[in-house]
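Hi R.,

Quick one: here's the HTH-type transcriptional regulator DegA sequence you asked about.
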Amino acid sequence: MKKMNKQRVTLQEVAKHAGVSTSTASLVVRNNPRISEATRNKVLQSMEDLGYVYDRVAANMRSKSSNIVGVIVTDISNTFISEFLIGVQTTLESLGYTVLLGTTFDSVDKQERLISTMVEHRVGGIILNPASKSSARTVKQLNQIRTPKVLANRELSDVQCDYVGVDYEQGTWMAVHHLLQKGHRRIAFLGGIKTSSTWIERMKGFKRAHDEENVTIDESLIIDIVPTREGGKEALAQVMDQPEPPTAIFCFSDLVAFGVIQALSARGIQPGEDIDVVGFDNVPEAEMYHPPLTTVSSFPRSIGVKAANLLYHKMNEQDEELQRLILKPQLHIRETSPS
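And here's the predicted structure, written out as tokens:
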């Protein structure tokens, strides 16, 4: 016998079952505060009894708006990204939006597919933490979509949208200036991808600090590598096995610094005593690490809050001018590079 397809329960059927109008049932599924608690409970019970599932995509198409925001990040296992997401999600939820999260694992191809998928599902807006090797193709894709969007943490030149980040150049200058003032003249720069805006901006600060002290940079001490713990360990081996190893290390991120510290300890080298190590981000683990890490605050949670608020205004005020919000960094001196 041919099996009949089960049709989706309609909102009209829910309204009839609950004894209310279709418009009232619609207000309930949209969580409108004007509906009394008794009516709301009655409609919700009918939805459960009938197995009703709200077709949000169809509703978005009818209203030409959505309360879902797409957030695309590189790696949720990175504490910096986790802190950033806390700021984004708590802010958007307080504004009545739901977050749809996508992770690229720093892959440009995955990033492009996620952007396309979110646009196809008619999200109300997109917050993007771009992959480090984002290309001109990514820029073209972002400029072609009409969905409101905000870039966070990493800029892409020529993308027509708002941006929130920290002053990476100044933060790096603060860290390297601190090391130079302590008398270090062979400072390594470990981690990060050379093509990314965040690495380029950090390098500007690295060079500026050296130029101001008339100290020549040894290019062999600059190792660009994936900014992870393992990347930090690998980069550390490359500079410490040189005839003249560095006396201090500036790390692209705290995550890189944690790998560097682990690798130094394995060699019997004590950070803060035998060699100075400075990170970047000031994730919660930095203060509790052993030894506690000297690092630069990049305020990821604040960036998340500001990115969410910017997107909210962009979604509700389409004519608002583009904004570029840059937070001021702060150096925290701890045991891996004491004063």
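Residues 1-6 have pLDDT under 50 and may be disordered.

Cheers,
M.
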